[in-house]
Amino acid sequence: MKPIYIDFLNGLDIAELALSNDEILAAIEASLALQGRGEAVIEPRTHLIPGGAINGHFNVLRGVLGGDIGHAGVKVVGDFVDNYRQGLPSELAILNLLDPATGVPQAILDASAITDMRTGAITAIGAKYLARPDSKVLAHIGARGTAYWNVRLLDHLFDFEEIRVHSRREDSREAFAERLRRDLGKPVIVTHDWESAVRGADIVVEASRLNQPEPLLRTEWIKPGAFVVPYGTMSAVELSLTDIMDKLVVDDWGQCKGGMFGALRAHVEAGKLSEQTLHAELGQIVAGQRSGRQHGEETILFWHRGLSLSDIALGHALLQKARRLGIGQRLRFA
After folding, report:
1. Would you give the distance in Å from CA 46 to the centre of its chain?
2. How far is residue 254's CA from residue 311's CA, in Å, rounded to a whole number?
3. CA-CA distance, 158 to 166, in Å (whole number)?
4. Are 227 and 244 a contacting pair, CB within 8 Å?
5. Coiled coil located at which positions (predicted)?
6. I need a labelling partner for 16 at 20 to 30 A (CA). Which of 115, 117, 196, 332 fits?
């Protein structure tokens, strides 16, 4: 058998590669178009729950991305709410890329930053197609790892006049706001409650970290014409939220319609989000097969649970750049 080598990119390598906003968005938008055209395979995520007194679980995401990318991928990401007590991120991840034709391993990447970047990019691409183009006020609930990239990439597209942030812990929301002020070069407002953040906002992103479902985001706070993105693991929205929406969009219906967790799990179980009420998957909109926002008065909701295809696409972009720049390690596998 001929030798098999794999590429290895650790967290320091990923940081050194420093993908730009446009590089991240381009990779994710291309993967969504492939999904929309049917040039991908995505399996619903599965969960591994350690049980006992441990406050967390693992998500296992799997998919195959065709086109010029040509990778199968499996990502395992932990979601452990109390990690901050040990000075650890709540989400740590690893991505394996494989040849879909032979099964030969191709690469192993630290996917913690990939998870954050691709989540923010999905939020931003969703807004590109579904939010009002003149959106000027952003409300962001939550300061988790993905929150920074939500705000950074949304602001890259919309150049907001006002950014409001809130999270449960005062220290986390203040630190989050200060990082955004430094990197975006503009003021960021810290609110001490959900309502002050959400009322009147053009784009509302709910990325809270709750231990159990609790309707903290009130439907009455959402202004007509807003774009709303709830994606917490535990639901923080009211059952009535879908009632005010003109369009309901998801990243992948296969994984949204089942499973244990998710912001709209109760809405699926109640039949408020179903194949009949669903407008489209985002990939169908990006590929031009379904309509996005058609007028300013539409109030639109986008629920994304996280696509393995996005991880694969961003992993591929990182690998390509690493090979050009000579970053990372080449390991003998067999």
Report:
1. 17
2. 17
3. 20
4. no
5. none
6. 332
Candidates 256, 290, 306, 239; CA nearest to 36 is: 290
Number of domains in the chain: 2
Torsion from C-alpha of 57, 34, 17, 141, nearest 10 degrees:
-50
Q: What is the pLDDT of residue 240?
A: 97
Domain match, 136 and 90 both: no
* Spatial distance between the Cα atoms of 265 and 285, rounded to a whole number of angstroms: 23
What does the alpha-carbon distance between residue 306 and residue 190 come to, in Å, rounded to a whole number? Answer: 27
Cα separation, 163 vs 169, in Å, equals: 18
Residues 195 and 291 in one domain: yes
Look up the domain containing 41 and give its range.
Answer: 5-114+309-332
pLDDT at 307 exceeding the cut of 90: no
Share the mean pLDDT of the chain.
Answer: 94
Q: Structure tokens of 175?
A: 């630190």
Within this chain, do residues 287 and 214 fall inside the same structural domain, yes or no?
yes
Q: Phi, psi at residue 155, to the nearest 5°?
A: -65, -30
CA–CA distance, 93 with 289 (Å, rounded to integer): 33
Question: Minimum mean pLDDT among 8-12, 96-100, 169-173, 257-261: which range?
Answer: 257-261
Q: What's the pLDDT band for 47 if we cut at 50, 70, 90?
A: confident
pLDDT of residue 195: 97
